Amino acid sequence: EIRSSGPISFARFMELALHHPEHGYYARGPERLGRGGDFFTASDVGATFGACLSRQLVEMDALLGKPATFHYVEHGAGRGLLARDVEDALCAKEPGLARRFNAVLVDTSSGMRAAAAGRLPEARVEAAGVARPAGAGCVVAVELFDALPVHRVRRRGEALVEVLVALEGDTLVEAEGPPGADLSAWAEAYGAAPEDGDEAEACLALGPTLAGLATSIDRGFIVIVDYGHEAKRLFSPAHRRGTLMAYHRHRANEDYLLRVGEQDLTAHVNLTALRVEAEVLGLRVAGITTQDRFLIANGILDGLDTDEGGPVAATKRRLQAKQLIHPDGMGRTFKVAVLTKGMEPPPSIRGLADPFAR
Asked: In the chain, which stretches have pLDDT less than 50?
């Protein structure tokens, strides 16, 4: 594509590197994830995250009036680990909701969809863009937005330039060019790359992606779990090089143009942009909290002081909880945003309450 048309945006490069149906990073499916892959998710830690989310879904179901069918639509569902954990927890603790529970799992990767269908044969597994409005329920997206293609910008004195991907011989290299009107407007709106030499990412795909999530239900909740910051912090001196990272065999690097299709590429989510795009779509932001607060409010610490199931099982539960809520790890790095659709005013939910408040 570069040879035929010239330099491309980093967003286009990232889209191809991650999602090309044959050569993209996610095309190879489940082998990319887990401890044997390049990174792991909360569900790779164990079933604890799904059990906590199931408790939140029980409250959401009650706030929705316990509809005849509760639709659980997970975008970026991967191998179906989270949905399996949620459904197992509901079957064990809330059989009434489990009988009304309808899981729809959405993923761009055919390999991931095959793995999810095998893990949850009772679920409907769809490619991205296929899911349709389906009554009341909850849409879930865990580490979906951080993998969306991003444009890169750089400040050169008073001017903002876009960082492009070009070729020198057979080697991919950076190039610079003038940003398009949409990219310039986005950067100005959120204060991206404010000082000379600063670099930043702009995710113009955030709005369309959120719109796709919103069309998955007619009424209910949207839960987004990802790492990110409000724009003021995202574009502060703490992130002068931006937040874009590549991950290969559980090691982070900045060699974005190497190992194409063989490493993950991610960037932090602009939570301010998420709020703005939600309002544009007519959604309401019920709140944004940290993962540790969300999980503690939903009972992750309950029973950790007992040896239920034996000492080995008890130790395993404690280690899982520690990994998910430790403030220097996943606990504060990951944020949980809860949006509502068709619910006025947005109801209060336990996951957004501060469990540390006295």
From this structure: 34
